[in-house]
Amino acid sequence: MKENTTRKIRHGTHHIGNDHDGYMYSLNTSIGSTFNSHIHKCHEIIHIIRGSLIYTVEGREYRISEGDFVITSPDELHSFSFPSPCEYKREFLHIYPGFIEHVPGAVKMLESRKSGTFNHIPADKAKKYGLDKIFDTIRQHCKNVIPETDVIVFANTVIFIAQFHRILAEDAPEYAQIANKRSNLIYDYIDRHYMEDINTGSVANMMFMSPSNAERIFKRETGMSIKAYITFRRVSAAKHLMMEGQKAMSIYNRCGFRDYSTFYRSFVKYVGMKPDEFKHRHDNRNK
Fold it and tell me: 265 partner at 20 to 30 Å CA-CA among 52, 134, 201, 274?
């Protein structure tokens, strides 16, 4: 269901059809309505100015209210809904990969989260670290555009990313614990090799661990088995390709699945719908 949106401010350097470069800032007000699951080809930062909603990222629900921020990465499936009718005013910044690629530290910070975790920044933490003021600056320069606007947005985007990372490191003890755990090595290896013929044994071997030890560490620190995460990562990649217009039958093996039936069962398990249904919903939404 699409929103009846009144556009207040919109400015950026991103051009439709280019999934790599630029940014786009928007300030919108609408009557809150359900927005079906979707994936962006950019990092998205949303600042809720007015309204209360439920934001779901990769199956995890966050209750969002005024002053909160939500951040999602290109591979994170997300949706939102409203418990009751309300005016929904928000500003969001879309950051495409090329916009900050020349600042490797910022890229690393932005990609430091694991999918479906730490997407929500409560209003009190946002104020403590000045995230609201950073967006105030971006908003003013996108509303009153000057020759320096794009440079100012770039500088403030990098500052925002650095402050977001500080929140994770300083005000989210659970993140600091996860960031230093051996399971991260396993995560990183799977993220780089999920399209290959890997399994618990081969991953453990690359980590110089026994399969039982690697499985015990990974499950204890993440609550997920290595096999489950490999499947989850493959399904996430498939969703992304399907949202780019590709058919399930043509991409399942590129995502690491040996046969379509295994892909089909895994997709239904993790997404909650059949591959064709997922693609049909996404295609209709973009007509």
Answer: 201
Under the phi-then-psi rule, with left for phi > 0, alpha for psi from -120 to 50, and beta for the rest, what region is 260? alpha
* Other CB atoms within 10 A of residue 127 CB: 12
Task: Report how far residue 195's alpha carbon sits from residue 210's, in angstroms, rounded to the nearest whole number.
Answer: 22
Q: What is the number of residues in the chain?
A: 287
Question: How do 23-31 and 6-12 pair as beta strands?
Answer: antiparallel
pLDDT score of 1 more than 50 = no
Would you say the pTM of this structure is higher than 0.85? no
**pLDDT tens-digit map of 112-143:** 787 888 899 999 999 999 999 999 999 999 99
Q: What is the dihedral of CA 158, 91, 119, 100, to 10 degrees?
A: -20
Residue 207 DSSP class: T
Structure tokens at 156: 């403030």
User: Are 24 and 10 in contact, with CB atoms under 8 Å apart?
Assistant: yes
Q: Specify whether the CB–CB gap between 144 and 89 falls below 8 A.
A: no
Please tell me what DSSP assigns to residue 259. S
For residues 163 and 129, the answer to whether their CB atoms sit within 8 Å is yes
Full DSSP string of 140-167: HHHHS--TTHHHHHHHHHHHHHHHHHHH
Tell me the sheet residues that pair with 56: 61, 79
Phi, psi of 50 (to 5 degrees): -150, 135
- Give the amino acid at 51: G
State the maximum Cα–Cα separation within the chain, in Å, rounded to a whole number: 60
Contact 70, 5 (CB under 8 A): no
